[in-house]
Write a structure and sequence with these properties.
It contains 7 helices and 15 strands. It is α+β, with helices and mostly antiparallel strands. InterPro entries: DIOX_N, IPNS-like_FE2OG_OXY, IPNS-like_sf, Oxoglu/Fe-dep_dioxygenase_dom, Plant_2OG-oxidoreductases.
Amino acid sequence: MYLEGNVIRILDAFEHEPLPNLEYVTAIGHGIPSSLLDKLREVAKQFFALPAEEKRKYSRAVNEVDGYGPDRVVSEKKILDWSSRLSLKVFPEDQRRLNFWPENPSDFKDILHEYVVKLKGVMDILFKAMEKSLNLVEGSFSSQFGDNSLIKARFNFYPPCSRPDMVLGLEAHSDRSGTTVLLQDDEVGGLQIFKDDKWINVPVIPHALVVNLGDQMQIMSNGIFKSPLHRVLTNTDKLRISVAIFNTPKPDKEIEPLGQLIDEKRPRLYINVKNFAAFNNECFQKGKVALEEAKI
């Protein structure tokens, strides 16, 4: 891949040496029209600007993922994130819960669908580049996702915060997905990645996409590819909006470290896991980290 620090040109992925230590990258040259990215940001802004009463029509229920609302309260000790979210299943299409898809703005559904369809092509290229970098047979990673992997969208709204030293927009975490693709706010930064024992700001690059790998990809790659710890800072003066797309193996698919990545020098690091989301929730209830519990 073509590299400029942590910037890659996705469509040149097979003309250059791929990243062997991919955790997160800012992707340019991905082939998705800038006009579509602008439209996606715009419908997100329009939705979050709706009156509270209108947005409450899409409120998620307790213990639900789909729908609109603030951070879940999981314990009295938890400090809430300074944000609201709209979470939606996009693929498979028959799993869409359209009662949570906003009718206002009227083109919201079409724009989100078009964006994710194009993004699936970008993710396919990324998988192939990752497989090539490890001398794997094409399809080694994608086969663990299944024919109809689960793709979710999360629209994030971070309002201005008068005390950014007291609260985070999104607390430090790793993603439980296979891969995550983020369209950042076109003006306001705030995303940070924890690397080399320090927090690093992810720059805002117009019409770029931030790609990071999730916990499930770390398991599949037997620890070669990492699921990075990341967080979002709040801003005193400006609101921030972003759109994250999570690509996750089907719940009934069992993931495991690829056999080609296990040998005497690199022994197997993780157990087989089926329905990682449920496994993650079990671990969370016990106060444990799923990725650590999956280690052999």
